[in-house]
Protein: Probable molybdenum cofactor guanylyltransferase
Amino acid sequence: MQAAAIILSGGKSSRMGTNKSLLKINNKMNIERIRDKIKPVFDDIILVTNDSQAYEFLGVKMTGDQYPGMGPLAGLHAGLEASSHEVNLVVACDMPFVSAELAEIMVSYCRDVDAVVPVVDGKEHPLFAVYKKDLAAAAAKCIKEGRRRMKHLLDDVRVRYVTENDFTDFNDIEIQRIFFNMNHPQDYEDAKKWAETE
Structure:
């Protein structure tokens, strides 16, 4: 596919109390699960991290934040700068059930817009979304202006918001799991139980 996948692994995992991306689910680290789920579709995978040594085992291209400590927007900026593709899937490291098939659908919607952002149950998911490489400059501008939320960037660019109605090949339970974020210890326990039924 003519698109790259950018995994963001720069968060502090403060609510979880440990690095979410390295937690094991079904004997595989969460970050490995994400890589393996998207690899069949995205052969160009970029990991944004400020601790590259911890992730050498993944065998993927890595880059670090140019604006450290500035949150996911800085991670998006770094990933887009490092990408050689015009279209890029971005996925957070705390989403153990991401779907490459659903990501492909989002990429297909990115022709005439700058970004494709899912809205599930009325909630935006800018960290499992698609962005054009050109948005790196807009992200840097937002950061320099002190507008550090992903929403600030999306307010400035052409976005196609997609909902459950755009993902008719997936049932409600599948959608809920794909967009599940593992933030707290109980979330991790839930993820382990769900993974047993895969």
The longest strand covers residues 87-92. DSSP finds seven helices and ten strands in the chain.
